[in-house]
Design a protein that fits this description.
The chain has helices spanning about 80-100, 105-115, 120-125, 140-150, 170-180, 205-220, 220-225, and strands spanning about 10-20, 20-25, 30-35, 55-65, 70, 155-165, 185-190, 195-200, 230. The chain is of the alpha+beta class. The chain has 3 domains: about 10-75, Nucleic acid-binding proteins (OB fold (Dihydrolipoamide Acetyltransferase, E2P)); about 80-150; about 155-230, 2-Layer Sandwich (Alpha-Beta Plaits). The longest helix is centred in the middle third of the chain and has 24 residues, at about 80-100. The chain is flat and about 70 Å long.
Amino acid sequence: MSDIKEDDIVMCTVKKIEGTTVFVDIDDNGSGTIVFSEVAAGRIRNIREYVIVGKKIVCKILSIEKGNVHLSLRRVTAKEKEEMKERYEKERTLLGMLKASSKKPGEILAKIKEKLGILEFLEEAKTNPSEIEKFLPKSEAQTLIKIISEKKEKEKEAKKVISVRSLSESGINDIKSFLQSAKGVEIRYLGSSKFSVSSTGKDFKDANHRVQAAIDVLKGKIKEKKVIFECEEK
């Protein structure tokens, strides 16, 4: 637990939900808790709309008191969440490549994280393959270099969550018409009047721009389509 400190952004796995507290395992750093008031702002009617046992979530460390780690879900910004998810996915990818090239993948991964960091290592490995030989024997390093060179860059996803409701008799048709105003994005129903608006691409900024452009179009259609619209993730 010495590796984490207040205000750090960490990846967690939801372990259980009891009373008004969410218990999580912090990746490589023990466990922690999130009180409901730090899950989301306002009254929470159904906690499982925000956290589900077994799922990964990105949290912010509020404080560490006598070994107890207090976390927040709602204080994590969209940018922080995306950056942490990218690091997490990159680490999983690198671990998979190390398993295919090294006899001690976990040990090598720990050394990389300690000395350079996952993202820095992968970027350096692309332009300066000799960097890999600082962490692995030459034969294993050559195998990893080949794997990295053949690995295609995974498309990045930008996503926001919106809430759409209509009080009119033609509510369903109004909502369908409203959502069709957004172009160039994928919209999925999440339940409880919530929808995800997402876009993918090699560049996260471009994908995020498409999502935000769609959100802006929807905002402009609020009065015309007579719906109640909220963007829950900013």
